[in-house]
Write a structure and sequence with these properties.
Family: Belongs to the glycosyltransferase 2 family.
Helix content: 25-40%
Number of helices: 19
Pathway: Cell wall biogenesis; cell wall polysaccharide biosynthesis
CATH superfamily of the domain at 339-568: Spore Coat Polysaccharide Biosynthesis Protein SpsA, Chain A
Strand content: 15-25%
InterPro entries: Glyco_trans_2-like, Nucleotide-diphossugar_trans
Number of strands: 18
CATH class of the domain at 339-568: Alpha Beta
Protein name: Glycosyl transferase family 2
Shape: globular
GO molecular function, one term: glycosyltransferase activity
Radius of gyration: 27 Å
Length: about 650
């Protein structure tokens, strides 16, 4: 095939240890031999200054130029790859592992495949180089080639569509990153830690945003992937399987259980056939077949164990290394994806969406997540509303957390803002809310805004303002580890339940997060939120995670939305019960995360009870004598039943997979 105007190639190779320097030289020679004048090789060193200094002499002037640079993102393969993506402007990014040597013809294969304008990603072939061995070890099940980052039986044929490429040998058109963002940091290999899935998550995220995405396999793009002696041991296989299970759990938390479709097919197809083959061979006297059969079953069991333990909440973690968008936004503000989740039943839905289209920040996208797509109600309500920034995405799994997580996955900006279908955003809302993240080197990963009543025409609306109103006041506030001062805001209040109740930080109808933080923490908990048995608390849970992880949280009172409160006593009573269950369930989720957390919550229960029951507490002092006692009873009943509802929801989700 004659490529008249070849695409430019940016080859990204990430490395972290001097032990691979010999193989890296072979890789660099193989790559440079086929680079053209417009191509470049980017070697990214993952937080190893000594190695970076050693490799800095490898740079050469174009053509075939080599750039050696340090990882400017979070440690790990995902962050290093993101550094490589940002280092150049080439149309196609080719990723090779630092222990994989491409075979001759790789560049021609990539150029020819990407000369087809509809090609988005390409997965190459990965052959195992068993170092000092000439053949695969007899005990190694061939269906586990993925354990050593190589091909395995059952992969699609050349030219076929695939879900995702193998990261050791893949090519991605730059527009993929422009449209859905970089590799998600927090997943993927870090040093010798045998985890992965970052390329899988990117491919699934892109396919979700662009259903017409074309991701294909091309076996002409082929590498020999070194399998060192340390990985030629049964212990490595089972350990790698365990960590792969944990990685898949994190992938499910980001993408949903549909992310495991290829894995289920592999188990039902190639793996089962391999068991049958080796069982027959073992019966015929081949002892190595028995070893393969046993290791194959052990590997699956370890992957399953890793998958189950991967849903255990984990605290801590470093601040995400994320930079705001720099193009097309006024005043250096990051672009924002606004997520509004709905069942299509709110009488205020169209007004809410129209208010978003009227924002004075032009560089936004509006994602309406339809949480009941079968009814068609959302599309009927929004029919005739045309705005190129508006997209309707569907999430058939009921629940506000599921819907919000779907919006996060579909979002293209690095800041994701949330509001509800019964809230009307002021025209300046998006601009002010995203402005809370500036400067980009700040530690703030969450910004909340002020929520005022859209109307107080009925007694129930006034009662809500007195008993549970969203308004946090007119003073800018910030919460940081310790009590670091902020020139533009007061230190946020830290009451006796700080930060576990988390009600002082804001509310879910007016909040924004760095998308990377939401992804690396697994998104909103599906066991919490409207539509789940617990009815709420997913926003409080996320606020608490921000603070406990050591990040900053800012309250911007000039980022205003107006909320339509429930107009009737019956509706308000149901809402107050849900607020009680949600708050209690959120605290229960934290309490069950560790023995230390459980102890912290138990010690604060007397204070919590006093705040809830005392008529002079901050919570109750604004209620006038006419405030219905039925509302208090409903909310307190919610506090009593919330922990039980959470445990039931967590048990149910653990049984079906994907609970958090």
């Amino acid at each position: 095939m004659n490529v008249r105007n070849p695409v430019s190639l940016g080859v990204v190779v990430c490395t972290y240890t001097q032990r691979r320097e010999t193989g890296l030289r072979r890789l660099v020679d193989a790559v440079r031999a086929e680079l053209g004048p417009a191509d470049r090789l980017h070697i990214v060193v993952d937080h190893n200054p000594t190695l970076a200094a050693r490799l800095s002499t490898w740079g050469r002037p174009a053509p075939g130029a080599v750039t050696v640079l340090g990882n400017t993102h979070a440690p790990g393969l995902s962050g290093a790859r993101n550094t490589g993506v940002e280092a150049g402007t080439e149309e196609v990014l080719v990723f090779f592992d630092d222990d994989a040597v491409p075979r001759p013809g790789w560049a021609t294969a990539v150029r020819e495949r990407f000369s087809q304008p509809d090609t988005d990603m390409v997965g190459g072939a990965v052959d195992a180089d068993w170092a000092d061995r000439t053949t695969t070890p007899p005990w190694f099940p061939p269906e586990y080639g993925w354990v050593v980052g190589c091909d395995y039986p059952g992969l699609p044929d050349d030219g076929a569509r695939i879900r995702n490429p193998i990261g050791a040998c893949m090519a991605v058109r730059r527009r993929v990153f422009d449209q859905v963002g970089l590799f998600t940091e927090g997943i993927g290999r870090r040093g010798e830690h045998p985890v992965g899935c970052e390329e899988t998550e990117l491919a699934i995220r892109f396919a979700a945003a662009r259903p017409e995405a074309r991701i294909v396999r091309d076996t002409r793009l082929r590498v020999d992937h070194l399998v060192p002696p340390a990985r030629q041991r049964p212990t490595y296989l089972v350990r790698r399987c365990f960590h792969e299970g944990r990685s898949k759990a994190q992938l499910v938390r980001l993408v949903g259980r549909s992310a495991l479709s290829a894995e289920r097919a592999h188990v039902a197809g190639s793996l089962t056939r391999g068991w049958r083959r080796d069982a027959l061979r073992f019966l015929r006297g081949e002892r190595a077949a028995g070893a393969r059969l046993g290791l194959s079953m052990a590997g699956l069991a370890c992957a399953g164990l890793g998958y189950l333990t991967g849903f255990t909440p984990r605290r801590g973690g470093s601040a995400p290394q994320v930079r705001p968008e720099t193009g097309g936004t006024p005043g250096g503000l990051p672009a924002v994806s606004i997520v509004l989740c709905t069942l299509g039943t709110s009488p205020h839905l169209r007004d809410s969406v129209e208010a978003l289209t009227a924002q004075d920040l032009p560089d936004i996208e509006i994602l309406v997540v339809d949480n009941d797509p079968r009814s068609g109600a959302t599309r009927r309500v929004l029919a005739g509303l045309h705005d190129e920034r508006l997209r309707i995405v569907e999430e058939p799994r009921r629940g506000l957390s599921q819907a919000r997580n779907r919006g996060v996955r579909a979002a293209r900006a690095q800041v994701v803002a949330f509001t509800d279908d019964d809230a009307i955003a002021a025209p300046t809302w998006a601009r002010v809310l995203t402005g809370g993240f500036a400067p980009p080197d700040d530690d703030v990963v969450c910004v909340t805004g002020r929520v005022l009543a859209a109307a107080t025409d009925t007694d129930p609306q006034r009662w809500f303002e007195a008993g549970a109103g969203f308004d946090k006041g007119a003073q800018p506030l910030v919460w940081r580890p310790g009590h670091e001062p902020d020139p533009g805001a007061d230190a946020g209040p830290r009451g006796p339940l700080y930060p576990y109740a988390a009600g002082e930080f804001g509310s879910g109808n007016n909040m924004a997060f760095l998308r990377s933080f939401l992804l690396r923490t697994g998104g909103f908990a599906a066991t919490l939120g409207a539509g789940a048995p617990t009815r709420g608390g997913e926003d409080l849970d996320m606020f608490r995670r921000v603070v406990l992880a050591g990040h900053g949280l800012r309250y911007e009172p000039t980022a205003v939305v107006h909320h339509h409160h429930r107009p009737t006593l019956t509706a308000l009573r149901t809402q107050m019960y849900g607020y009680g269950t949600g708050m209690a369930a959120s605290v229960t989720r934290y309490a069950l995360s560790s023995p230390a957390a459980f102890t912290r919550i138990v010690r604060r229960l007397p204070t919590a009870a006093a705040m809830l029951l005392s008529p002079t507490s901050r919570k109750n002092s604004r209620k006038d004598p006419g405030y219905p006692r039925a509302l208090d009873r409903a909310e307190r009943l919610g506090y009593l039943t919330g922990p039980v509802l959470f445990v039931a929801a967590a048990a149910r989700d653990a049984l079906v997979g994907g609970g958090r």
